[in-house]
Amino acid sequence: MNKKTYDRGFTVKRATEQIYKREDNTYNKKTIKKILKMYAEECMETLINGGKINIKGVGTIRPNIIHSVHCGLPVMKDREDSSYTVARLNICTSDILKEQLKERLSENLEKGIDGLKGEEE
Q: Which pLDDT value is given to residue 28?
């Protein structure tokens, strides 16, 4: 049976590997992984408590509470109260990141690559 693999994005494991390979790195993998896990835990706790997270050069992540109501529109009889409340994350990217994404996409489109991934990926 073939096991499907999924791209989980930029994980702690992937970040640990990349930081460990950097020329300016002075830490071992175990220390890097511990620090990244602590950072992720602090980010999660901040978001759960309604705070915002600013990642330098990337942007800001902010939780929003959305209250939705039917706004006086007709609803089905069995759903008289169709209002609900959900939590969503609002991500505002930095201008620097936006420009770099646009530049990368333009370069890739000129090379015939559809998307942001580089040639080596």
A: 96
